[in-house]
Amino acid sequence: MEDQGKDAFVASIETLSAGQRLVVWTARSWVYERQHPGTVVPSVGEVYRELGAPEAALDVGRFLNVLSTGTKRTLWFGNPTCRCSNASRVLETEALLVNCLAFFHLARPQCAARLLKRWLPRTAIDLAFGPARNWSYALALRNLPLDIICVEQKNDLDHYRKMISADRGTALVH
């Protein structure tokens, strides 16, 4: 995993909900902490303890460790210390991470697993699944809901609706 990259920008941080921004910041900070030990960025653990969810920091670490060691391709994350114009843009990888967790909020874990298939082999998905679910639920319990971020084509929302519909039943995705 990298802290800067070549992923397409798909959204603006300002348009995200508090929960979505927290997930993006968490991933960026976790990657940055691994690449730059001892930096002044507030630690993921500190932030989740302040939220009253110290267990979520453990799940974040477990999930992102599996993602970083088992990934099939380079995953790009923004730099949490950057104050440049690109810092306000959400990369495709970051949006897909939010979407993976959002599918747990929508009670569609199989859709989350399908997104994880973009990055991980089957055995790694099994390892990542529980921590991702727990991280998502910890956010939901703290009233930090997650919605889907459209990342592909203009018909992306239809793509996600079909994915959910194929999973079991139908759901409205905003």
Structure description:
With 174 residues, the protein is mainly α. It has one domain. The protein has helices at residues 18-35, 44-50, 54-70, 92-105, 109-116, 122-141, 156-167; strands at residues 9-12, 89-91. Helix 3 (54-70) packs antiparallel against helix 6. The chain is globular, with a radius of gyration of 15 Å.
Summarize the structure.
This protein has 174 residues and is mainly α.
- What distance lies between the first and last C-alpha atoms, to the nearest angstrom? 29 Å
Main sheet attributes: strand count, strand direction, barrel closure: 2 strands, antiparallel
**Total strand count, please?**
2
Task: Name the beta content range.
Answer: under 5%
Radius of gyration: 15 Å
Overall mean pLDDT score?
Answer: 82
Question: Could you say which structural class the secondary elements and strand pairing correspond to?
Answer: mainly alpha
Question: pLDDT under 50 segments (min length 5)?
Answer: 1-5, 166-174
Query: What's the structural domain tally?
Result: 1
Shape: globular
Helix content: 55-70%
- The H/E string reads EHHHEHHHH
Task: Report strand order across the widest sheet.
Answer: 1-2
Annotation field: number of helices: 7
